[in-house]
């Protein structure tokens, strides 16, 4: 009997609704641990997680049996509830609809992990909008501006 063997590496990016800067340094680590637990409980491998006050990057090793859209929906839904139940924000927290997904080869693992773990330094130089548009173009993903994340006006 033959088995199924795979190496699928996926980066997921999504933003806080209205691109508000609501993810606070004081609780972001707890949020990342919670999201890591969701990913692992769904049988996937967390490789890196980090972000900024207004968006998050998750890098996973994904099994072919995983339905990515179901995983992202569960991460967003459960982490919304977690943040609101813990009352981390003075107002109701919610993620924006939609997300970006980008696949990588095994040879890119170290670079992608370093990129995600250095988000705060990276965003001193580049805005989230610049970063996201660059990724879409690099991966040759067709898009319409009206379906992208809501952007903060000064970006």
From TrEMBL:
<dbReference type="GO" id="GO:0004803">
    <property type="term" value="F:transposase activity"/>
</dbReference>
<dbReference type="InterPro" id="IPR036515">
    <property type="entry name" value="Transposase_17_sf"/>
</dbReference>
<dbReference type="GO" id="GO:0006313">
    <property type="term" value="P:DNA transposition"/>
</dbReference>
<dbReference type="Pfam" id="PF01797">
    <property type="entry name" value="Y1_Tnp"/>
</dbReference>
<dbReference type="GO" id="GO:0003677">
    <property type="term" value="F:DNA binding"/>
</dbReference>
<protein>
    <submittedName>
        <fullName>IS200/IS605 family transposase</fullName>
    </submittedName>
</protein>
<feature type="domain" description="Transposase IS200-like">
    <location>
        <begin position="5"/>
        <end position="119"/>
    </location>
</feature>
<dbReference type="InterPro" id="IPR002686">
    <property type="entry name" value="Transposase_17"/>
</dbReference>
